[in-house]
Structure of Carbamate kinase:
Amino acid sequence: MSKKKVVVALGHRALGTTMPEQYKATRKTAKAIADLVEAGADVVISHSNAPQVGMIHTAMNEFSKEREDYTQAPMSVCSAMSQGYVGYDLQNAIRAELLKRGVYRPVCTIITQVMVDPYDDAFTEPVKVIGRLLSKEEAEQEEKHGNYVTEVEGGYRRIVAAPKPQGIIEIDSIKALSDQGQVVIACGGGGIPVLAQGVELHGASAVIEKDYASGRMAELLNADALMILTSVEHVCVGYNTDQEVPLEHISVEDAQQYINSGQFEPNTMLPKIEAGVSFLEKGNGRKVIITSIDKALEGYLGKTGTIIE
């Protein structure tokens, strides 16, 4: 089988939530990635980070309350820390799994910055919940600092914007390493959202949906396939109803019609389908595969999953 460049987007199931869960989950995930490598894929990996970045954000901010000489950690810094933390476990697990199979393939993590548009409407309509439950007094303090909060059961939570990715700062490095046969982990958690100010890049108080960032990275790498590994073997229409139907092989036009008819949940499946459609519309001969991590190899070989092309 000829080599194909494949961007693999890992969801929450591939990583777990706590440190022990993540350590265990990445060992299982490594087997799926090694299967793809052995099948002839040049793999570039992206991943979610919601529990991890939330844990880091909470820990850093709680620590700052106890020490006057420490300030609260910006979201961009928390995102960078989560990329390193998740990448560390992933790259070690994948390296070990490949070596067990007699495959020598360097594995690396790139701390990745993703450009966002300062005029993106998302900055005036924040939707991503982060951090722990806050009291009314703590919520008021967050608002005094210019942050957004929302009332939830039992208290308040901070919310941040989720702008769309525009460009990937380290894309040339990602491409160079991937072209040399390395397994590259990049755009973790959707990447660190940054804004350009002259020659400098400044972190934005936001998070980027990792599926959109994965699709953008696949586009810029001119990948052959975008594989989104999630908790289900197939995307379904009529989900959780008695009309539920699994989708197997569909066209871009079919996918767009399902989007237009509201078939996909906005915060779960919709970003995956939209990212896939955008990737396919910007190149020829491409394929999108959405399936569970347990079926990654079968999906890559076209034996299961939802395939859009």
Q: What stands out?
A: The chain has one domain: 4-112+166-308. The chain has a mean pLDDT of 91. The radius of gyration is 19 Å. Residues 75-100 form the longest helix (26 residues).
